[in-house]
Structure formats: C-alpha cells, structure tokens
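Sequence, please.
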C-alpha cells in the first residue's frame, strides 16, 4: 500500500497500535483480531533490532542486573516479553572539558560501560545473551534463542587526543561511534550549536577527519545523530563507507536540531546509509512547553526524595543520556520510597498535567515520511530507551510488538518490516566491514 493510502487509512479512524497492549483500550475499537494475528506472526519471524539503549553500570552487577525485571526500559525480561531480539547497549559519556583531566575521567567512564556489557554477556547471563561483533553474528546468535547485545559509542570525547583508542574501542566491541554528543567535542561540532550560533570547528576538526578515516579502516560505523549538520555533511563527503544516524527523526515533521532535514537525508541516501528513526517523544512531536507550575512541582518532589532535578519517565521529557541518569537514580530508591515518590508524582500529574506525549502512530508517521523521501532501504528503528526515549505505546522493550502492529496496519509487507527492524542496519554494517577489509589490504 502506498504511503498516501496508509495515511488515508489512518485518517479514516484506524486504531492506535497501543490498543493491542492496553486492556483499558480494548473496548474502544481494538485492532482487528486477524490483523493482530498476522502482525504477531511477522514479529516472531523478523529480527527486531534497536540501535540505542542507554545503560548504567550499576545495573550490571551480580546482585542487580538485566536478568531481573528492573525498573529500566530495557532488560532481558522486557526484551523477551516484547520480542526485541537485539539491543545496541550504549557506551555514553556526557561532554565535559577539553582538558587532560576531562579526557581521563571520560575514558574511565567509557571503560566501565564496556566492561559492564561484557560482564552481563560472559559471566552473568551467558546462556541468555551474547555480544555480536559482526553483522553475520546477529542471525547466528538469534537462531540459538539468545538475545543479542551490540555496543555503540555515543560521543568520542573519551578518546581524548589519542586516536589510537579507536582501535582499542573496536577491540572492546564498539561497532558504531558518534564524534560528538550535546556540546562540541575535540573532534566535531554538536547539533547544540544551533541554540546560540556558536561553533568550535565549523563542522569537523582535523583530528575528527582523521578519526573518520580510522573508523573506516577498522570497520566502525560512523554515527551522525548528535553532531552538527555541517559535521554530518562533511562526514558524508569523507567517509568511504555508509554511515548511520543511530537515533534521529525527520526534521520536516518535528523541527528539532537532533532531527535530520531533507538535505541531510538525501545525502545519507546517496551515501548508502540508514537513519534509525527514534521513538523519543520530544523529537517525534514538538509539544508545548511544560508549565512553570509543573516544573516547580516536579522539582519540589524530587528534592523531597533526594533526587537531582532531571528528566524521568512521565516528568516532561529528557534525552541524550541525562534522562537515563535521572531514571536510574529513581530506580535505585528502595521500593517503599519509590512507591511514595510515584504517589506524589501522581498528584503532580493530576494538578498540572504534562503535555501529551507522541504515540506509536506519530512515530510510524516519521517512518512513513522517511520511506517516501529516501526509500525503504535507508530507514530503521531505534528507541533511545533509558536515555529519555519512549512514546505512548512503545514505552519500554516489553511493548516492542506495537511498532510492528502499526507497521502492518499501515500496509508494510513482511519484507519491508524486516528491513526496517534490522535488515537495513545490518546491510550497512556488512558494507562497513567490507570497506574495512579492503582498506586493510
């Protein structure tokens, strides 16, 4: 079915995918049982891959880990419940000072996250999950009935001035890396420069250009979701391999600097890359600002419970790792304290409601737009879970099926859904591996 036909069906009153998972909505024109059955069969057959799930090393210990259904958006029980097969766990370090001390602290944080992921897969849950290092590893591991862990590096700041660390990070399992996050790094300007019009490199720095060549040589996918538009366009011109945007959406539908405009998207298509459409409410749908009264009420509750102010699920959005840190702080509260916090927050929600969040339907509308503009072979799916991500209907990994249901409802075929969920990303990864093999010769 063409996208106009899909959107016409949508306008005619087709039901939100979230209804399939929400008992409270079953009485309100729930999806046709045959459609749900067909979608579930497709969901079970395709490999579902999410390119962005933030982590906290505190959740990768013997006592507390992803074999348990922790109050995180991603863990093994939730992946099983929602049929999410593959997750890129993220080695994220926030941008700090461009000094030796800053680089050293960032490097230590990055290594702790690399180690945490391998500890889960090798010591804690080796019978349940395995780290994939190549595109071919993914179907091989999934065929054994295991979940698949992959590693993405969000922000090359921990490299410091030592580009030799790129080889080290590759050896530790990193298979994509962005040269900047929120704030300019030593390698690249960030999208956040749009806020004040101040730039550090006008795109890439000279070490950033060298880093691109080294990532091509080693077989690390280059991620352009957080760097500036100038950096992204320069990266496309320099890279000998396809690139990815690991978690971005369409700027034409939501005018946020983290999203990609049509010029960028067409350049990405020409490069052979893929944009992993992100289910982050604030990037899918620009909501009106949170009221001052709500902001003050949330800050007061968080202060009462000894929590730093920041984004938490249901508290008005977040992102880029910051939301994950705030959510982790809440998750670390003892259960009775957490329950008391949630009761107080329920009162805040009642008195000062948050702006409506984006839905699975809104999210798939971004996929529709991207597919129409650059083609089915250049679009994928990501969540940014535990980093501020999530939309109504896909709030955590346990609700992953709802995305497939909405895609089926809009007329996407199984072949197309397989490409969106993992085929396109794995194709790019395979091509990056081939380029690296050629360059090493």
């Amino acid at each position: 079915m063409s996208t106009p036909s899909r959107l016409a069906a949508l306008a005619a009153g087709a039901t939100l995918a979230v209804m399939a998972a929400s008992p409270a909505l079953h009485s309100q024109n729930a999806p046709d049982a045959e459609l749900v059955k067909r979608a579930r069969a497709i969901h079970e057959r395709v490999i579902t891959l999410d390119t962005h799930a933030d982590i906290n090393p505190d959740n990768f210990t013997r006592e507390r880990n992803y074999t348990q259904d922790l109050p995180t958006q991603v863990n093994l029980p939730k992946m099983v419940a929602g049929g999410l097969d593959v997750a890129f766990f993220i080695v994220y370090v926030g941008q700090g000072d461009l000094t030796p001390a800053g680089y050293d602290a960032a490097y230590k944080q990055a290594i702790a996250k690399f180690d945490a992921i391998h500890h889960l897969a090798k010591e804690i849950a080796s019978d349940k999950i395995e780290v994939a290092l190549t595109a071919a590893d993914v179907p091989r591991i999934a065929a054994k009935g295991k979940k698949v862990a992959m590693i993405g590096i969000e922000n090359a700041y921990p490299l410091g001035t030592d580009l030799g660390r790129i080889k080290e990070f590759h050896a530790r399992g990193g298979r994509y890396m962005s040269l900047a996050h929120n704030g300019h790094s030593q390698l690249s300007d960030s999208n956040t420069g749009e806020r004040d019009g101040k730039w550090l490199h006008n795109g890439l720095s000279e070490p950033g250009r060298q880093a691109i060549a080294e990532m091509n040589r080693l077989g690390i996918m280059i991620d352009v979701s957080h760097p500036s538009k100038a950096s992204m366009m320069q990266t496309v011109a320099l890279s000998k391999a396809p690139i990815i945007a690991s978690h971005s959406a369409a700027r034409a539908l939501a005018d946020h600097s983290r999203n990609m405009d049509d010029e960028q998207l067409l350049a990405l298509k020409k490069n052979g890359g893929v944009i992993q459409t992100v289910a982050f409410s604030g990037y899918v749908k620009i909501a009106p600002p949170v009221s001052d009264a709500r902001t003050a009420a949330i800050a007061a509750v968080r202060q009462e419970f000894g929590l730093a102010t920041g984004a938490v699920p249901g508290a008005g959005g977040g992102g880029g790792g910051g939301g994950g840190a705030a959510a982790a702080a809440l998750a670390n509260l003892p259960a009775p304290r957490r329950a008391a916090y949630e009761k107080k927050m329920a009162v805040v929600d009642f008195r000062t409601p948050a702006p409506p969040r984006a839905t699975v339907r809104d999210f798939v509308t971004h996929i529709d737009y991207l597919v129409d503009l650059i083609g089915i072979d250049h679009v994928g799916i990501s969540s940014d879970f535990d980093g501020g991500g999530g939309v109504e209907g896909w709030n955590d990994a346990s609700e992953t099926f709802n995305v497939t249901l909405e895609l089926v409802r809009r007329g996407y075929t199984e072949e197309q859904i397989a490409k969106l969920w993992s085929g396109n990303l794995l194709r790019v990864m395979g091509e990056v591996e081939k380029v690296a093999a050629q360059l090493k010769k």
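Residues 50 and 382 are 5 Å apart (CA to CA).
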